[in-house]
Amino acid sequence: MRVGLMAAALLIAHASAGAQGLSGVTFTKDIAPILQRSCQNCHRPNSVAPMSLMTYEEVRPFARAIRQQTALRQMPPWYIEKAIGIQAFLDDPSLSDEEIAAIAAWVDAGAPEGPATDLPPARSFPDTRSFSLTATLGPPDLVVSSPEVLVKAGVPDWWGAIGEAPSGLTEDRYIKAVEHLEVNDVPVQASSASIGGRFLFHHAAVNFVQPDGTLDGGTFQALPVHEVGRNADLFDPAAGRLIRAGALLSFANIHLHANDRDSKARLDVALWFHPRGYRPAYDVRPLTWGQNEIDLDGNTADQVVEAFYTLQQPIKLLNYEPHMHAAGVRMCLEAIWGPVRQMLNCAGYNHNWVRAYTYHPDSAPLLPAGTILRIVGYNDTTAKNPNVLDPRNWSGWGHRSVDNMLNNLAYAAFLTPEQFETEVAARREKIRRGEAEAVGCLTCGVQRPPQSAGR
What we know:
Blueprint: H1 2-19, H2 27-38, H3 56-59, H4 63-71, H5 97-108, H6 134-137, E1 142-145, E2 149-151, E3 158-160, E4 163-166, E5 173-184, E6 201-209, E7 226-227, E8 233-234, E9 241-243, E10 248-256, E11 263-273, E12 283-290, E13 295-296, E14 303-310, E15 315-317, E16 319-320, E17 322-323, E18 328-337, E19 340-348, E20 357-358, E21 366-367, E22 372-379, E23 395-396, E24 407-414, H7 417-432
Antiparallel strand pairs: 1-11, 2-11, 3-10, 4-10, 5-8, 5-9, 5-11, 6-7, 6-10, 12-24, 13-23, 14-22, 15-21, 15-24, 16-20, 17-24, 18-19, 18-22
Helix pairs in contact: 1-5, 2-5, 4-5
């Protein structure tokens, strides 16, 4: 946490320095467009956020809080560190340095409203929470709801299956995007002493099951795992995910946790399809690894846990999804291939807002067979970490939120050697034209693979 506090101080100082060079910033001209793009999906009436930020009158009382939270990059909840690794992601709501400086300048100037003629047209939303991808992809092609669950107040965490739901599909389709939305009766303004008290589903792993009961494709995790506060997923355009006609959605691996009231909830799963006739170029599958040997002392910051995975074939890594528990505050992903060693990404971690980061197809890591993937998690069990309910005690690996985990819940396109070389050649050309990032393409700057010591 000491590193995090220093970084926070630098961010606030940077925002203040940037703000000094700005003048005439107003809500209607400069701030409203930022809120519309990056904040109002959650901060609007009857949505998940505790306050609405749709109008000047609603925003003005929270101006200083907005300045602080954006300077710290706590809001919007997107925790990729900007100075390390790959920066091109899909569906990225984070603010630029210039936008953060504009917010700081606006607040420091007294939060002026500005002329109404400068105000962009208001965004329209349904009366209740909706899928965030609707703004860019339109309404989902299919929505399947899980069975409803009742969680009594204050009961222990629960794991298991809650049942199945028919897809209703009469033909095979390929999925290009998926989003999970918890629908519950917890009041928006509710407070709770439990982690993620606004939600009941800690996680949900959904599987496709054929009408005869067999697993479709033999994989348990047919869709990216939903987690508390999690954002949507977009697959690489060349790596759509298949759902077959007549498939059931099986909600077979569910973790529920209680808040301080009896509550009901279900999980709505929205799917967007590729056009009929689409065929994926690549085989896309989960790529999950982690560490079960976790040993954390109480009242101790900066505790490190590592996990490694060796690739048996080339891949294009589609996303980065750190998964820790309450003590987790940061996780980094590194790729090692012979003499080549690259830090792909580091991201802060907040157990109330689990984030998945989908790489832009032109910057997704291209990793040859033999690459060693390393994740390193940083944990803080002191009282400075608000997610740790009892800082005094030792904690280890476990499924409960008060236990700990270290996983990367990723998806990857598994490539043939020929596909990998084609992807690398295309990436080299895009890097040359300034259209892609060099970080993550481990062989782009290497003419031939490193030789082993005995050759």
